[in-house]
Design goal:
There is one protein chain. The chain has helices spanning 20-32, 42-51, 63-72, 107-116, 128-132, 163-178, and strands at residues 56-60, 95-99, 122-126, 154-156. By secondary structure, the protein is an alpha/beta fold. It has a 4-stranded parallel sheet. Strand 2, helix 4 (107-116) and strand 3 (122-126) form a beta-alpha-beta unit. The relative contact order is 0.14.
């Protein structure tokens, strides 16, 4: 198989390469030897793999947990999107799905689970109770949104949200993971050390 396309690097237009002929000659030599060559960024490949293999930790406390079970069933089949491997251990998960009502008594447990997850980690608030307190909005015992405890990446509204809304929220998280810079850059989640 021969590569007929001109090499393309996102940040540099083709016309601005200093030595286009050497690059094309190298690709032709590799193709002649039987090696199929694909030129791309390793960062894009890693982000593609990370976004299509999200392992969620479920933290379901009420009716939104039942909706999550519906998403995992054969009718909606979340396996086709790459986040079907649900984990019950925070050490194996990279996304925590907060489904349902979070009380102040439960908040320290949720925070401990989040702290035990390996970096990079993400939080999805599913349902009205996790997003803003839901029907318990001005209650004395319910946290008025999980974003008071954890940094939330994606909100999925609804009471309870439909399975389609849940799938859409997870696809938004996949898009967010795809644009992160794994090897550093502007979007990296790590804090820069000041010297």
């Amino acid at each position: 198989m021969e590569i007929t396309k001109r090499p393309k690097i996102k940040s540099i237009p083709y016309e601005e390469f200093q030595d286009n002929e050497t690059l094309e000659k190298l690709i032709q030599e590799l193709n002649a030897g039987g090696a199929n060559v694909m030129v791309g960024a390793l960062d894009d490949l890693i982000d593609w793999g990370r976004s299509n293999s999200l392992w969620p930790l479920t933290f379901a406390t009420s009716c939104c947990g039942i909706e999550f079970m519906a998403v995992a069933s054969a009718r909606y089949d979340m396996a086709r999107f790459g986040f079907e491997v649900t984990r019950n251990s925070p050490r194996q998960a990279d996304v925590i799905l907060v489904n349902g009502t979070i009380t102040y008594k439960m908040a320290p447990v949720l925070k401990r689970l989040y702290d035990q997850m390996a970096d990079p980690k993400y939080v999805v608030a599913v349902g009205g109770c996790a997003v803003s307190g839901g029907p318990f909005r001005k209650s004395y015992h319910v946290v008025q949104g999980v974003d008071q405890i954890l940094p939330v990446d994606v909100y999925v509204p609804g009471c309870p949200p439909r399975p389609e809304a849940f799938l859409y929220g997870m696809m938004q998280l996949q898009r967010k993971v795809k644009i992160e810079k794994f090897f550093g850059g502007v979007n990296r989640k790590e804090k820069e050390t000041e010297e």
